[in-house]
Write a structure and sequence with these properties.
- The protein is of the alpha/beta class and 293 residues long.
- Helices cover 37% and strands 23% of the residues.
- It has 3 domains: 3-68, Winged helix-like DNA-binding domain superfamily/Winged helix DNA-binding domain (Arc Repressor Mutant, subunit A, Orthogonal Bundle), CATH 1.10.10; 91-157 and 259-291, D-Maltodextrin-Binding Protein, domain 2; 160-258, Periplasmic binding protein-like II (D-Maltodextrin-Binding Protein, domain 2).
- The chain has 10 helices and 11 strands.
C-alpha cells in the first residue's frame, strides 16, 4: 500500500470533496481521483460514494479511516525522529474525558479551537470510563489520577472541589440536615458502586462511612440532574452545581478536593495537533480557574 495514497484518502475524508483535497495537497484533480481509485483497488473495497456535490465515506471507508489515522500518527512520529517536523495543525484529535468535565465544561468551549484551526477535527468522548492511550482509543485523556505506568506524558490540568447539594424544592419539603449524621435521614444520590472505575470517584467515604445511596447513577451529569429534580442529596462538582440557582450547598464545611490531569502517549509528543489541543485545554482552565475552586 502506498502511503501517499493513504494521505490522499485522509484529505478527501476530511474535506469531503475531491477538489478541496486536491487544492490542499497541491495535486491535479484528475491525478488525485486516479490515486484514490488505485487505493480502492488495492484494498478491494469502495471507500467513498462519489457524488457531484462531494464524497461520502462508505461503511468500509469509515473503518479504514480509523486505521489510516493510526498510520498517519505513526508516520508523523517517525518523520519527527528523522528530523522532519509535523507542522500542520490538521487531522483528528480524540479527547476522552469524564462526563462532568467533558459535557459541562469542554463541550461549550471547544468551538473556539475549531475557529482557530479549521482543518482540525475534534472528537470529544465524555463517558465515565478509562481510555487506553497505547491502543489509540483516545489521543488525549483527561484523567482523575496521574497514571503511574506506561509510556505516558501527564501534567496537572486543574484542581477542583465537590460538595453536598440539594435542590431548593427538596429542602422546602424535607429540611436541611445540620450534621453529617443527619444525612442518614435523607435519600442520598451516588455512583453505581460496581461501575466506579477509579478510586478518585469513591469519595462518599470522605463524608460518611456508608453512603448507601437510594438512587445510584453512573455519571456526574446524571447525579446533578437527579439532585436538581429533588430526588435527594448528592455530592456534586462545585463548578457544575454553581450553574444552577435551584441547587443549594449544604454542610458547607465539607469539601472534597480532586484534580484533572491531561495524559497522552509519548509517541504523540511531537505531533503539533496533539500539542495544540493540550495547550488549548491548559488555556481554557487557566482563564476560568476561579470556577473550579
Amino acid at each position: 500500500m502506498n502511503w501517499d495514497d493513504v494521505r490522499i484518502f485522509l484529505a478527501v475524508a476530511r474535506t469531503g470533496q475531491l477538489l478541496a483535497a486536491s487544492k490542499r495537497l497541491g495535486l491535479n484533480h484528475a491525478t488525485l481521483s486516479r490515486r484514490l481509485t488505485s487505493l480502492e483497488e488495492a484494498l478491494k473495497t469502495r471507500l467513498f460514494i462519489r457524488r457531484t456535490n462531494g464524497c461520502e465515506l462508505t461503511e468500509e471507508g469509515g473503518s479504514f479511516l480509523v486505521s489510516a489515522e493510526r498510520m498517519e500518527t505513526e508516520m508523523l512520529a517517525a518523520q519527527t525522529k528523522l528530523g522532519r517536523t509535523d507542522t500542520a495543525i490538521a487531522g483528528t484529535v480524540r479527547i476522552g474525558a469524564p462526563d462532568g468535565f467533558g459535557v459541562s465544561f469542554l463541550a461549550p468551549r471547544m468551538g473556539r479551537l475549531i475557529e482557530r484551526h479549521p482543518e482540525l477535527r475534534i472528537q470529544l468522548v465524555p463517558v465515565p470510563r478509562s481510555f487506553s492511550l497505547s491502543q489509540r482509543e483516545a489521543d488525549i485523556a483527561i484523567t482523575l489520577e496521574r497514571p503511574e505506568k506506561g509510556r505516558l506524558i501527564s501534567s496537572k490540568l486543574i484542581d477542583y472541589t465537590l460538595g453536598l447539594y440539594a435542590s431548593r424544592t427538596y429542602l422546602d419539603k424535607g429540611g436541611a440536615p445540620e450534621t453529617v449524621d443527619a444525612l442518614k435521614q435523607h435519600p442520598r444520590i451516588g455512583y453505581v458502586e460496581d461501575l466506579i472505575f477509579t478510586a478518585s470517584l469513591d469519595f462518599t467515604g470522605e463524608v460518611m462511612r456508608s453512603w448507601d445511596a437510594a438512587f445510584e447513577i453512573s455519571t456526574a451529569i446524571g447525579q446533578t440532574e437527579a439532585v436538581r429534580s429533588g430526588a435527594g442529596i448528592g455530592i456534586l462538582h462545585d463548578y457544575i452545581a454553581r450553574q444552577y440557582p435551584e441547587l443549594v450547598r449544604i454542610l458547607p464545611d465539607i469539601s472534597i478536593r480532586r484534580a484533572y490531569w491531561t495524559t497522552y502517549h509519548e509517541s504523540a509528543r511531537d505531533l503539533v495537533r496533539v500539542r495544540t489541543v493540550v495547550d488549548f485545554l491548559q488555556e481554557l482552565v487557566g482563564e476560568e480557574r476561579q470556577i473550579f475552586l
